[in-house]
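Onboarding guide, step 5: your first structure request.
Type a short instruction followed by the sequence, for example:

Predict the 3D structure of this protein.
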Amino acid sequence: MTENRIKIAPNTLAYPDEQALKLIVEFAIPGAPTETIDLKILEDSIHLTAPARDFEYVAALTLAWAVKPGKAEATYQHGLLRVEIPFKDPMEDAVKVVIKTAAVSTPVPELKPAAV
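The system replies with structure tokens like these:
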């Protein structure tokens, strides 16, 4: 049987680190046992659910810049969940396109000196 819990949005803070290499997201979720926290990250979003006593913390964030979810690190201490995720280089998956020259043989007009 599913429990009916009140859903609460946790206080959340998101900001880049000093070198602008990582996104840091902090969720205030006091009372949530570590083993019940469900944190999922995609390149463009973060989703959190964390049951605590008679309620459940729920958060969903859409990110303005892509991140690398596989490199995320999270720590939980004194009711604060801190997540660090490296930003993805926008050109990381770019494909270099080879530019070909046209194979059509176009005669180049001969330039004549201007009459003086």
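Each response can be followed by summary notes, for example: Residues 6-86 form a domain with the Immunoglobulin-like fold (CATH 2.60.40.790).
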